[in-house]
Amino acid sequence: MRLMTSLCRVPMREETRTFFMGIGKNRGSLFVRSLFHDIRLRYAGMERVFKEWDHERSPMKQDNIALLAAQLAGSTQWLSASDLALLLHTTTRTIRNYVQALNHNAGEKSLILSGPKGYRWNSEYEHLREHYILVRTPPESPRERELYILRELLYRGSADLLELADALMVSDRTVQLDLEQIRRRVRRFDVSLRLRKDRISLGGKESSLRHLSCACITRTTGTELLTLELIRGAFPLMDVSAIDQTLLETLSAHGLGLNAYAHYELLLLLLIQIVRIEQGHRIESGELPVESLSQTPDATCAAALAKGLGAQLGIEYLPAEIDYLTAMLLCKAEYDGPYDFLADTEFSELPERVRFSFEIVRRRFGAALFQTGVPRRLIHFCHRMIVRSRMRLRTYNPMTDALRAAEPYLYSCAGWVMTEFIKHYGVHPAAGETAFLALAFAELLPDRLQLEPPIRYVLICPSYGAIGNHLTMKLEQKFQPRLQQIALLDSLDVEQLPQADLCLSVLPLKNRRRLIQISPLLSEIDCEAIRREVNRLDYLRHRDALTACLTRYSQPAFFHQVVSVPSREEAITQICNALEQAGIVDERFCQTVLLREQADSTAIAHLIALPHACLSTVRHNTIYIYRSETPIPWGEDNVNLVILMAFRRDLLDDFKYAYTSLIKVLSHPKHVAAILNAKNLDDAIEAISKFNLE
Questions:
Q1: Which domains, and CATH codes, for the chain?
Q2: Helices (H), 366-456
Q3: Number of Cβ atoms within 10 Å of the Cβ of 197
Q4: What is the pLDDT of residue 593?
Q5: Mean pLDDT to the nearest integer, 489-495
Q6: If we measure between CA atoms, which residue out of 150, 144, 182, 184 comes closest to residue 636?
Q7: pLDDT in tens, 297-341
Q8: Do the Cβ atoms of 224 and 432 come closer than 8 Å?
Q9: 119 pLDDT exceeds 80?
């Protein structure tokens, strides 16, 4: 019951209650006859009140009783039996029977008071008013229908196709189409959708169904970023604060940490586990790899947490449920303690492999690491990542897209390091894992932003005391390392300006290209104008670099278009075969590119895919443009444009700049459309040369 509350709880607004009250008084309104077909009210919680009639009465009676209870809960006035009968499209005698059913199951005191004026909610049950919710049906969009069907299946276990069609007020065929979409969506949770003789059910391990429930609740809230308020609203009948306090105290006592985002995700999974246990759904023995979990410090913490919550809530945690708790901690918590426990396991060589991975990144960047030793928490992260991947636990990273767009080369390096773990440990990590690894490298490479040449500028400022030096210091604080000053000139040297990308002046100069007039005191308006110009110059630099790369590294034969292709593996294989026939790569190149895709999808901004590999066996740098008239399934995305890059390992600087330029320039739908519509390579290069920053 609590899970049903969390899956479909929507607060009833005051104006909605007033609307219902007004309809009840207008007996001739046409809305009254259609009200039941447009709106259904479902109770949220109150197991004790509804436990008897919930399974004995028909769905129609359940909905009518829930509608009656919610109508009375939403009003502080007396409501007549005739008005309520008109609202439910039934008789006054039936209303009396519904009230008797509610009061019979409420306990010693009546839930609904009766009197000469009709019926009213008992004020002694004031705390239960908010547990009545409004659910509008039928859902208007396919997304709402999918969520509705998933909620029904997760709560009831199964559903009848014809009854769903009636409840949603759509045809059987529409429900079947919705089921096909649901089947594709739940597949990534290792859950199957079964349809046998019009009976629909979900199949899969209990742990998978719990993760699906978590995703369903998150999607219902309309946000990927949970808050404590949202979680409390999803579980109104549970003391969320007390459970949360027990969780945090136990983690702290065992040296485990949480950031705010992972904290609320872990809390949500924990609440779902509690609800599922109360409903009798338990993790089966052997469902999780216990040998991998018992070696972690999270196992001790999970046992203590199960003991504390069991005593607090009066539920029993079986060993398999404690293993599931351990898995959740591995997925969300962080550990910074000693890693001696890895010595006698298959991960004994992991610290050395992590150091080797960082050396790969250092060589690719040509920069020194921030510190000589590898932090312990990064070794723990890699260990946890491997265990999570083997258990197919997914860690969503809300910073993935932003990190990939801001630091594409750094993200690419993290992807290549991930391939080393794939080859050695046989894991298939989620996309978020690569983003977390990229963040770790960013911390160890403080000078990574200097890999791109800065914008060179000249500052023109009259020599009034030290104002020029003060202005220079402010500009360095605001814009270093993106800006590099090459000269500080006073008004007498204006005619001798050196070559620069940008000119900043406190004087109103005319006929000067790329000049921005600023205040001697550098206001925020000045800073914003400088940022816009720097972004524009940076974009133009990457645009020109991209046109040069395509002119140099591509050729008309490598500008290919197809009608459709079934998968990314097929697309990559076709491109690599063409390059192999041209003598540019060998057979190992295709395997390397496919392995890189296993580490993390190279789809960018849901628009393009950039598969790539840098090998010593590549004869010369090549860029292959592959277009499809129909979208190509690419991981969790669909793309129409694929640009494969085959570069020599000893020319990493060329790859770095070409790869970064591709992402910087082709991250806009209009620019991708221009390449898709180009007739040949020359037309595509000409179109790119005209791109401007949107």
A1: 2-136 (no CATH), 142-204 (1.10.10.10), 228-335 (1.10.1790), 341-450 (1.10.1790.10), 452-522 (3.40.50), 543-689 (3.40.930.10)
A2: 376-390, 400-406, 408-425, 431-444
A3: 6
A4: 93
A5: 62
A6: 184
A7: 888 999 999 999 999 999 999 999 998 999 889 888 888 788 888
A8: no
A9: yes
- Tell the residue number behind the tokens 């000119």, with chain if given: 503
Q: The whole model's pTM is what?
A: 0.67
**Residue with the two structure tokens 């992260």:** 381
Q: Which one, of 400, 292, 693, lies nearest residue 532 by Cα?
A: 693
Token pair recorded at residue 397: 């990273």
Bridge partner list, 120: 113
Least confident of 18-27, 354-363, 364-373: 18-27
H helix or E strand, kind and range, residue 303: helix 298-313
Beta partners for residue 135, in sequence order: 40
Contacts 24+ apart (CB under 8 A), 564-568: 564/628, 564/629, 564/630, 564/632, 565/628, 565/632, 566/633, 567/632, 567/633, 568/597, 568/609, 568/611, 568/632, 568/633, 568/634, 568/635, 568/642
**C-alpha 16: how far from chain center:** 33
Residue 600 per-residue DSSP state:
S
Query: Is 636 a residue whose pLDDT tops 60?
Result: yes
As a whole number, the mean pLDDT across the chain is: 79
Amino acid found at 677 = N
Please give the residue that has the higher pLDDT: either 524 or 14: 524
| Dist CA 47 CA 43 (whole Å) | 10
Let me know: does 523 contact 590? Beta carbons within 8 Å: no
Looking at residue 648, its amino acid is R
Q: Is there a contact between 676 and 627 (Cβ–Cβ < 8 Å)?
A: yes
**Taking a C-beta distance cutoff of 8 angstroms, is the pair 501, 514 a contact?**
yes
Long-range contacts made by residues 271-274, C-beta under 8 angstroms, separation at least 24?
A: 271/6, 271/231, 271/234, 271/235, 271/238, 271/240, 271/243, 272/3, 272/6, 272/210, 272/213, 272/214, 272/217, 273/210, 273/321, 273/324, 273/325, 273/328, 274/238, 274/243, 274/309, 274/313, 274/315
Please give the average per-residue pLDDT across 281-308, as a whole number.
Answer: 83
Residue 423 neighbours by CB under 8 Å, 6+ apart: 595
Q: Which amino acid is at 438?
A: A
Length of the chain, please?
694
Label the pairing between strands 515-517 and 502-505. Answer: parallel
